Amino acid sequence: MKRITRIFIIADDALRREIYNHVKKDIPKEWQKEYEYSGTGALGLPLEEDSKSYHYVMDMAKKYDFHPGVDQIVHYTKSEIEKTDYFKMDIATPLELEGTEASVYGTKYEGGCPNPKCHLGKKLVGDVFVDRKYMKKWDIGTLFPDNYMSEKLRELIHSEDITGVSFIGEVKDFKGREMPTYYVMDIEHILPPMAGSTWLINDPYPNPAYNNCGHQVIYLRSDVQYEKEKLIGAKDFNLSSEYIDNNRMQALIVSNRVRKLFKQHKIWARFSPIAVLE
């Protein structure tokens, strides 16, 4: 396992290419293929923090006022991944517009933060309603602030005695039109806070709507890390204590049993290994 800092910059194509060509020799071999220059979008550069190339990129960012984004990424070998016990699972988000929630279509919630602009931690009442056109081919996904699962996957989960997840309602079309059956996931086991070495940063541009309650966005900028004892008693499906990133949802932390089951049945999700600290 190797952890490294990654710098994101956005600039015109010529400048991005110039910077990439200057530093590509210092991108470690584990990431060279993944971070080849594409000529489009943001430029991600995995570099050792004490390298000349790292300081060169930061100097260029200051010179051209890039406001670079910085995070940490990790490389695991295939054998290390197979030996990993828990993973952060990232799933599809069919409500494609950022900030769109199921409440837009009439889904009801109660509780949570009393700040009317926040409601962090609110609980579902009844079924989730959506516009069926957003429900595509995914067997598992997020409809802010809920997670859902297809009928096929729910039956598979039950047949394999996967622990930690039950179901509290269905996903239905807000106009009553027919659509495939999906169920809302209920994950009750909440893990203790992540290890202090996990890189969680406060939103550098806080939303004034959250000033009264203090529930500003917290960004995850590294892999998830837990002390070993904090994973004692973990289920196959768990949630983090922390509400993270722009959607302010708890991270899905799942066992390797879940990862292998998804892989076996070709169900899409992204699995990032959890670092376990002794």
Report the span from N to C terminus: 15 Å
> Poorly predicted ranges (pLDDT <50, ≥5 residues)?
none
- The helix content, as a percent range, equals 10-25%
* Overall domain count: 2
Structural class per helix/strand content?
alpha+beta
How confident is the prediction overall: mean pLDDT? 94
**Count of β-strands:** 18
By DSSP (H or I, 4+ residues per run), the number of helices equals 6
Strand order across the biggest sheet? Answer: 7-10-11-9-8
Order of helices and strands: EHHEHEHEEEEEEHEEEEEEEHEE
In angstroms, what is the radius of gyration?
Answer: 21 Å
Tell me about the largest β-sheet: 5 strands, mixed
Beta-strand portion reads 25-35%
Quick one: overall form?
globular
Short description:
This protein is an alpha+beta fold. 19% of the residues lie in helices and 31% in strands.
